[in-house]
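Box 3.1 A note on notation
Throughout this textbook, protein chains are presented in two layers. The first layer is the amino acid sequence; the second is a token string describing backbone geometry. Keep the layers aligned when reading.
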Amino acid sequence: MQGRPSFSNPRQAMFLVLLMLFLPLASQSQAFSYVPDVQEPTHTAPILVEDLPPLVCGDDLCDRPLRMLDRNGRDANMDYGWWQAYGPDLDWNGMDDRLQRILGGLDSISPTAIVGPDGRKTVAIVVDYAWFPTDYETSELASTLDQHGWIGTEEGAFFEVIPSIDAVAVDKVPVSALMDIYHLDGVVVVEMQNVMVPNNDVASKAAKARPSEVYSSTAHELGYTGSGVIIAVLDTGVDNEHRSLNDFDDVNDAPDSDPTSYSDHKWIAGYDATSQNPDTSGETDPDDGNGHGTHVAGSALGTGDASRVHMGTAPGAGLIDIKVLTDGGGTNSQYSLAGLQWMINNADTNWGVNSSYNGIQIASMSYGSLGGGPLFPGDQGDNGTSAEANLVNQATDAGIVCVVAIGNDGSNRVPSPGSADGAVTIGSVNDRNTITRDDDEMSDFSNYGPRQSDNDDDELDEQKPDVTAYGSNIVSATYAASLPIPGSDAVLADDGYDSKSGTSMATPIASGVIALMLEANPSLTPEEVKEALQSSSEQRGVPADEGLSRWNETYGHGIIDASCAIAYVLGTICESGLRASTSDVNTTYPVNGTWLMANSFTRISGEVNTTEVDYDKIEIKLEQHFKPNNGNVPNPQILLDWTLANGTTEYWFYDVELQDSWVKSNDKFIVVYAKATDDKGNESNPDLRTFQLSRTGISLLSPLSRNVLSGTVEVTGEVEGVEHDRIEYKIDDGDWTLGTSLSEHNGAGQDGLDSWSFNWDTSTVDDGYRQMFVRMVNKSGYESPIASRSYTIDNIAPAPSLRFQGDVEIFDQKLPAESAYAGSLLEVNFDVYNAGDKDATDIYVRLTAPGEESEAYPSQGVIPSLEKGESVGVTLFWQASVAGLHEVKIELDPNGAQGDPEPEDNILTFQFEILERPSQPVLRYLPGSVTTVPNIPLVDEEYTISVRVDNLGQSNAVSLDMVLEYQIPGTSGWQLIGDKRISFIPGATVESGFQSAKFTHSNSNIGAVHYRATLTGDGVESEYSQHTFAVVVSDVSSGQGSATLSLAEDEYPIAFAGIESSTLIFTTIDGELHVRSLSKDLRLQTDTLIDKSWGGELDVLVRNDGLVHTAWTSRTQSQQGYFLNDVAMTSISATGQMLPIHHHLTGLKISEGEYWGLDLAQEDETVVLSGYFRNISTGGSWSDLTSIFSIHSESPDAGENWSTMRTHIPVIDISPDDGDQLSTLLLDGTLHVLYQEIRDDVSGIERSGLMYSRGDLDESQWSYQTSIGDEAQSAQLGVL
């Protein structure tokens, strides 16, 4: 079989290698007299899967069989090892997961179930063997069943060998028999039988099969009706006496119970697989007691009776009626298996009816496996390895095109047998009762893909559905619904028609189209039919993976097109012309009918498909066409005149920015022209493609931002764009959830503005500040920009909510400590914050850790009061007398007296190491050992640096020298400042002794200055002799004080913001972004974590209202696990309090691009953020383009009020390594920008140029740009 999984046997391969190794040894028997046998393992430990009951053997879990059975030359029809990919079998043991759940206590869902001897409902199963089951295997199986009280075939049980798949189907099996069957020799899988359920005037015309006033050159007009082709309808049976189904010419066609009574009867043969004793001769004519099968047959091959109105797509095709579903509609798959096997057996039968009609060419199967429920939670169908899917593959190999419905759950589920690799799987579209295809849309009930993976090396066989056909409101033949009165003649179907919807209705439309294709080219194989059907379909939606194929999850490869399919298999050109180009140029993207979004880049690309002309360049043109207006058609507008494309003739491309101004209310489509020329002036015919342009946006109108919400609230907004599908929302970093479906503009190509609303139960999230994000997702999966608002959720009665704020700090002798020596008295400092909505009083706190208790230095205490929204600093003491690595626990309100609704936040534990105090001197620079006076030195003014050295040992240290150096800026060299003698540092048994050396220095550089202190003398360990540290030098005086500000070695200042009452210092440490609030006397008031994953870019602006507006690049992790960069903003008060963070711009993978060089500016109430946007992916083209953008807002603290991104300068040559931060100024509504660009004009020398541009904030492309100078750095704009 081609196109389906193949499997190797690694254990067998290892065994052969071992034999090859042993053979040379065996040939030298005089040297080696014994070669041990290689024993292959047959079982291994079970795989345990959450929520799946394991198999139990006795008192233990069953080992998992490796199922590497040796066929020993026995016959088999299936490829060896196919069972290794069978699903559903998550624990890979060969027992169907659904049967394991039944063994675990759930009930059987078999429609033929009875109560077995074990008191449980029986199951219907398929027993798969590694080889063809002979009489020995079937007898052994029957004997095993009998041992468990099986009623046998004599009492109505089903038992039948399915030869093509080496299996036996059996029902009414007692649950107690399953494990014994599982252990039978040769059994590789025990499947639960799937429960199979049933899943045209306008439709056949819309499919371009029948003539219409809309489309010309339809299949019937070309003379193709399916003549000579036989369609087997596997369903509930067919009432083929109906006037649309009994003959071809609709003359003298009164209903007759004898299907052969007509001179030109359509009925060829039949088989009733649901019968207790089916007749395999083909002479049975099954009746339809349900109506489904008759309706399906009429859509595929009905003549529409003499009126020729409700005609199927292939009225010239013959009918074989195979009944596999009971009149109740649903049944075990055993009848489907039997029917498929009968069909395979008769794939080439000469029916002796008409020399033009032999064998079976097409199987139309409008049914599929029932899914979901407790036996199969989260059901997405199977992976194409079920018994009926394997039979469909075998039928495909036998030359039968198997056309199967994808199902009607409206979900991502591909049921069996539509999951089969060989199946042509059909989804449903709605023709909206019009022949024109422009308004066609996906049926809301139609399932979509992809299929579950079978883990082979073919990525294409998971692409289901293959194509879509018309399945909504299909009018077709009606069965004889009433039952005959006993003793009277049978009730016969006549000329009635009714309407049904479902993928069941779409499938026969497709089956009929395939009959037309086979009439046009009878030599086609099933694989060729599938490829032609996919290639000739009318593409809709955006490809799921453009590099793999044009397939997407809903439409598959597109909507079926009978006319184009026939042209394709005949090697001629489709009537549309555009999709079957005769130009030497082939435009591969965009494809016709693609919707693209304004304010984005797209890559137009293609190839030259001839070598007869030596073309050396490709040119493209964009032209916009318009709809008629009062009978007048406006002239086309050239959007891009003939322009040279990039790349080579094998792959040419051009990246174009789709302007927002191109979106017009009367726009029809935009045409892409592409032509090739050579150096002799030869020019190809132009190749044409069309696409349509839409702007997409969403607004969140209510509730208003910062409202306090409780209970269920209505969320409302507006959305514009194309092919609306749904509104999704998420709270904070949660998952996207469906808010509401959209119906106003959800049809193919429909574009417009919608209002939307949905109810949100706020009690599903925790109380507190929450951010809501909303987006629109259209039919093609395109996601709109995200709108967001912040709310305070309050569903819980007022209560204090205590929590720890910031980090716990431990001090040893007033210095920060990361460890301490035994006997130390440690101060443990932490902040407690009341995040609740009620004040708290008398809050008991305690610290628990190994050590001694001290009344003078207590380890517990009471916080007298803590108002809501306030925080307080707390100090407890720890007499650390015991050496070791200890767990320290701090508890807030451990007795629960405060009624905190979130008590889990009231305990903090951490580890801290207490060291044995050594007897000899141990000299160390402890954290915080460096201080300066003043605390933040001023540039070019002298300051004092004090470096403290601690003696952690018990003995005194004497005769020490310290040297202090500073690093010369821009070099790796160091300059001596001075040296000091430290004559004595005392030792101690409890607390460390210390001494300090003081130096004076001044510096002309602003920012961090790096120093190195080196200690020498007896007892100084070389690895601890040096200490490097940084001192921040400022050009702004922040006052003097006794407090100390010292940065850790790995913490660096990156920005300052001076406010009237405070100074904010922005620092980074371990990839985090912090802001530290300092008082005028330089006391550290707060240390606030802004972002745990800082992206490396930051700008701050002191706004007119006194808040510090902060913008930075932030890294977040997507649901798929990618790290994305976007721009985040907040506002920070003088005390370091932050307003809610809001995110902007499209999140980019690191491989896709970045935002950098950010700069903030303000005029009146308007704040604008500008920056460079490096777009590596450029809409999938990977061209690495950099542009300058801005966003702005008059309410900068409301994330939803910021504008969308405007690209002012679309392409500049600069990289983050070569450029500085932008410098911007907002003046009289005009944004002025200084930026850098690599240039080589005038001089021919490549250099960094300083450029200037200006323009309106809402203008997409600025026209004014000029050069300022070269090699400039740190440029600033100002007003004189």
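The domain at 581-694 is CATH 2.60.40.10 (Immunoglobulin-like). The longest helix spans residues 503-520.
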